[in-house]
Amino acid sequence: MMGSAAAHEGRSEETPGAKGAETVRVVLVGRTGLDGRLRLDPDVELVRVRTPLEAVGELADPTMGGGRPGRCVVIIAPDADPAIRRAADGSVHEDHARTGEFLAALRHIDPQVRVLRLETSDGEAPARAGYDGVVRADSPADALRAEVRGVGAARAADQPEVRVHATPAESLPGLGRKSAGWTDIGDESLVRLLMQGRDITESAVELIRRRFPGRNVRFVPAELEGVSPPSDQPVHQASVGWRGRAMGVLRSPDVPAEMLAPQAAWLASWLALRDQHAQLREAAFMDPLSGAHNRRYFDQFLSVAIEQARKQRLPLTVLVFDIDNFKSFNDQYGHGAGDEILKETVKLLRSVIRPSDKVCRIGGDEFAVIFHEPTGPRTQTSRPPTNIFPIAQRFQKAILDHKFPKLGREAPATLTISGGLATYPWDGADAASLLARADELALQSKKAGKNCITLGPGAERMNGEGGGGA
Q1: What pLDDT, on the 0 to 100 scale, is given for residue 379?
Q2: Count of structural domains within the chain
Q3: Can you list the alpha helix ranges (DSSP code H) found in 243-334?
């Protein structure tokens, strides 16, 4: 069914070797030719991607909890230069604004990232503006590794820094580290939340409250402005908005409007960053057709989720399945019907799984679900959830019973799935082995006549099932 989990869709990742110095994550974008020299360094986690957007995706943390090296270097090859547009007639056009947008997106996600351009032997290299340095394609291995490990080095003086256009404390006059009698502490916590993909609204409002000790300040989102309960005392307020878009208001009975106004502007810039970051994460980690997470998300999330499960001594189950005879439906009813099947499949899945479970599209009609509760049991005496097989059965029945309008009346209730359930740690001790086992079990379901979910020994153990399928 699926290919190797180690290399997919033009991206591959090398696991660092023995632990030494602090591990540095190096993302190679395009054809750099640096793989062999960097792979020899045990303190380098090496990732190869094809496009700038994929590089943005690699920097984002879909696990909402970290678990990756704290330092990152991105190296851009000439063939992946975001400034270059190649027309159909072969002509080349440069758009340096795209370079600025790309660099801003990277630093939006990780303000400490170091972005280097690759200079080839013929002198071809991306535009200089905004990059943190240059790496020569013919650099010896030792020199190359030294350049990569110099993550904290200052930017070259002749290369202007490209900033995100909405950097809060810098883009708003009067909101430096000290302003209006308060110390602007805690912004780092907002950066961490952004990098983890979490909402910053409550934390940002709490920082504003800390600037006015003992006073009542609250944020009312735009959609709730008209439904707030009336107050017996006068309320001061300041609008929170960004570039013509109303986001809400800051309200306080005891902080004057003129003092709320700069806080509202500060909050607006952070909320704008939040929205921009969410858009970047969605583009990097979501499958636009089905609405499921994509393969990149699956690979990154599964590895970290297994590590969490290992530390917490909890099981983790993966369901891998595909839609039986999907190609024939595509051929008979058209790609519109096929697209609808994929979208409806994701909707049906989400209707039966838990909020913490992740639905991912990992191939054409191939999906995977990671059944994972990162918080574990709610109390020490309660047991972790073990009813994964019944969830899979409910989904299997939902697919069988669902009417797909574009298939027409002559083909009701004819869709089935074949899948495999594998559970960590019994069916696989790491992401690659667990996925491979689930894939093997799915193939067994196909060979058994389809419309079947086959359980591995670990899944059988967790779910108390004596048989191997449904």
Answers
A1: 46
A2: 3
A3: 257-285, 295-312, 326-333
